[in-house]
Design goal:
This protein is mainly beta and 773 residues long. It has eight helices and 42 strands. The protein is globular. The protein starts with a helix and ends with a strand. The relative contact order is 0.11.
Length: 773
């Protein structure tokens, strides 16, 4: 009966269609008292979302603002000969908001002027959510290419930045989901695993770690919603951004767009070269080059005010070398990685009525990754090819009625995964006796199918708000499992105090990381060692709890404070196959993560703006092993070891802060600081002299072996920028950024069982010039 009911629901919802967005749309019509169209200049601002957009309505008085993050906005309109107009607009549904404005003749005032402070807090939110606006994205130039967006996400409370740009939200390993213009990306998006997302085309980010809408599933450690620019101006426009810095780094992006009436078209390209792409295991930064290139194109057409079609394609590739340890460098090792990604997406939306919104989308994404070693590699020569061709389809129907904003839909991932690997051990002394000296895993392929269905509702009951949803997921790859996931959030807004109290519960069903999962699940690997433990990696299940407050002070400062707890079964982590650098998912019986977070933000106070984010968390995992591949001595105890341990992302204290000053003549100066109390460093039975030969004394000095942790890290950063030219739609902006001003030696990970050793960025300088026309 359950299967029949599920199929029936899919059939019913398949006629109601679209992609993940959690975004709204404002459709504006402006006219004078006689009904004649007026073309005013306007501004749309939401301080809570870090959103600020200037625009000019068309000759017909119409303007459409797409992909607006949910929240409260201030809309201001100005036209010669007419009184200025300003009011608040609420966007809390995907059903487009239609707004008709009549501008009175000057000096008559048709509306009371509204201050931006009214948009500082969203009184309808039911959980913590952090927004990163266009200004923050444009003013951040990562000195290590490929990390622009990852850096910005890591500044939010609860996120830990581990080796090689891997993000960990609230103690979760590889459970980050990026959603780019509605396309969910559940695979590892760190620089070593995938090409980067072009930050130059991103308008805003929204970061969620609790109170997840039911439409989100599969990876729920944290959600990063990425929205690219949609505000195409009429005619031809373009931009160029070129920069460079330490380690022979050069990078550039270029784009051009054209818009006319109902049609909009854009093409963008990017590329970079750097001599420090990953985080090396030693100070010398051996063999660490990276090169990348890519392009994207999109076309959008409005068939009418109610029907829109968007088509986009993209191709990106990155080639890099794996950094060597001291012994590997002396031996002459070289390991090359190439990651490539090609994708295409089609999206169609139809407004059925003022209260009903329909959309349909689908995409195909083809990814490939190769790893090759030269004959001098030590302790192992490895060669690997893997990839997948992923299809995705989604269907949704969203509606607004009275106090309800609801949505229901169905989606599915489907496609073949393929992998092949071979290795040859060159230093048998470093491996358990009996380990097979050479092994070949032939090309294998298996289909991954992951359908889901959901329904959710956002209710406003006076000063109370309730979000409720239910989701069903089926996972079908190495194992077959299904789960229902209820979600609920409640909040109470106190207008007299400008205070929002909220609490939420999320039941989650998280699929295992797909990278090398087919390899680690194969019975062929039983031949590698006399002692092999190979258990299927099952989806993780968890219960997430959060309570918190959001308060605005003086109309200038917003304070978010949260406490949270996460209880896991089948807690996910990753391991490495025989020092090959090929990582694959594993799972422990359970884990508990608890913590507190605070973020204070001043979007603008005179010429100053800034934020301070602090997190305190503790993560404890517990055996035995419930999934993954373990060889030799690891396999002997994996099934019986029920001891507790600090999870690899257990950094107890994290602090990020930034202060920005807006100087006259369109110049600005900013200073930031980052602090982390240090990640676990459990070296087990490793010999200190062996570690010294691999990493050097300076690196070992940054590890507290008595506490089993890396010593605290700290970085002081500076940035400045100035608009050196501006005329009509043409501008030139120069920026410079200095990271780790004190040139402090920061070790991120050390000899970690799962993450290896990684050295943080030394003092580095980068500069860029951005041109627009």
């Amino acid at each position: 009966m359950l299967a029949i009911g599920f199929l029936a629901l899919i059939f019913l919802c398949a006629i109601n269609a679209r992609a993940q967005r959690v975004r709204g749309e404002l459709r504006l019509d402006v006219h004078d008292p006689q009904g004649t169209a007026v073309s005013p200049a306007g501004e749309l601002v939401s301080e809570a979302n870090g959103f600020r957009r200037a625009f000019v309505a068309g000759p017909d008085g119409r303007y459409v603002a797409q992909d607006l993050p949910f929240g409260v906005y201030r809309l201001s309109l100005h036209a010669d000969g007419f009184a200025s107009w300003s009011d608040l607009v609420e966007i809390h549904s995907e059903v487009p908001v239609h707004l008709a404005v009549t501008l009175g003749v000057a000096p008559v005032t048709t509306q009371v002027q509204v201050n931006d402070s009214a948009t500082l807090l969203d009184p309808y939110a039911t959980g913590s959510l952090y927004s990163i606006g266009r200004q923050s994205i444009e003013e951040h130039d990562a000195t290590q290419p490929g990390r622009e967006l990852l850096d910005l996400v890591s500044e939010q409370p609860g996120w830990v930045y581990e080796a090689n740009g891997v993000l960990h939200p609230r103690g979760s390993e590889y459970d980050v989901q990026f959603v780019v213009n509605g396309l969910p990306l559940t695979q590892n998006r760190s620089p070593a695993f995938a090409p980067s997302i072009d930050a130059g085309e991103v308008e805003s980010l929204r970061v969620l770690t609790a109170s997840f809408p039911a439409e989100y599933g599969r990876k729920l450690g944290g959600i990063v919603e990425v929205t690219t620019k949609k505000d195409a101006k009429a005619g031809w426009h373009g931009g160029l951004n070129a920069g460079g810095g330490n380690f022979s780094t050069v990078n550039g992006t270029a784009g051009i767009s054209y818009a006319r009436d109902a049609d909009r078209f854009s093409v963008d390209g990017e590329g970079f070269h750097t001599g420090r792409y990953l985080d090396p295991p030693v100070l010398a930064n051996y063999t660490n080059r990276g090169n990348a290139a890519g392009f994207s194109a999109s076309y959008e057409h409005d068939f009418s005010r109610n029907d829109r079609l968007r088509v986009s394609v993209a191709h990106n590739a990155v080639r890099l070398l794996v950094p060597n340890e001291l012994v590997q460098q002396q031996a002459g090792q070289r390991q090359d990685i190439q990651n490539a990604e090609r994708s295409g997406q089609v999206y169609f939306q139809h407004t059925i009525s003022p209260e009903l919104f329909l959309s349909v989308s689908g995409s195909v994404r083809d990814t490939s990754a190769t790893l090759t070693s030269n004959p001098l590699a030590t302790p192992v020569i490895v060669s690997q090819k893997r990839g997948y061709r992923e299809g995705y389809a989604r269907a949704d129907l969203a509606g607004h009625h009275g106090h309800h904003d609801w949505k229901t839909g169905v989606d599915s991932f489907f496609g073949p995964v393929h992998e092949a690997l071979q290795y040859t051990i060159t230093n048998p002394a470093l491996f358990d006796p009996g380990t097979k000296l050479s092994f070949q895993f032939p090309y294998q392929q298996k289909w991954d199918v992951e359908p889901s269905i959901y329904a959710q509702d956002q209710m406003r009951l006076g000063k109370w708000n309730v979000s409720a949803g239910l989701r069903f997921d089926h996972y079908g790859f190495v194992v077959q499992e299904s789960a229902w996931s209820p979600r609920i959030g409640v909040s109470r807004f106190v207008p007299a105090l400008n205070l929002l109290l909220h609490a939420s519960y999320d039941r989650v069903f998280q699929t295992p990381a797909i990278e090398n999962l087919l390899l680690a699940s194969s019975p062929l690997l039983d031949a590698i060692s006399p002692s092999v433990l190979r258990l299927p990696v099952r989806p993780g299940r968890g219960n997430f709890y959060e309570g918190g407050v959001t308060k605005a002070f003086f109309g200038k400062l917003r304070l978010d404070a949260n406490v949270f707890r996460r209880d896991f079964r089948q807690y996910s982590d990753d391991d490495v196959l025989l020092d090959t650098g090929v990582s694959f998912p594993i799972a422990f019986a359970k884990a508990r993560i608890i913590g507190e977070e605070i973020r204070a933000e001043i979007p603008q106070w005179g010429r100053f703006s800034g934020y301070l984010s602090y997190s305190n968390q503790s993560g404890i995992g517990q055996g035995p092993i419930t999934g993954g591949l373990f060889l030799g001595s690891d396999a002997a105890n994996a099934l019986t070891d029920t001891s507790k341990f600090a999870v690899t992302q257990d950094q107890r204290n994290s602090l990020r802060t930034r202060v920005r000053f807006q100087a006259p003549q369109h110049a600005w100066l900013a200073m930031g600081a980052q602090y982390g109390s240090g990640l676990p460093a459990d070296i087990g039975g490793a010999n200190i002299s062996t570690l010294l030969a691999a990493y050097g004394q300076q690196v070992l000095d940054r590890v507290d072996f008595a506490r089993g942790r890396v010593r605290p890290n700290f970085s002081l950063d500076l940035a400045a920028g100035a608009e050196i030219y501006h005329k009509e739609s043409k501008s030139a902006v120069l920026q410079i950024q200095v990271v780790n001003l004190a040139d402090r030696l920061n070790v991120i990970n050390f000899a970690s069982l799962f993450s290896g050793t990684a050295i943080g960025e030394p003092r580095s300088v980068s500069a860029s010039l951005r041109l627009t026309f």
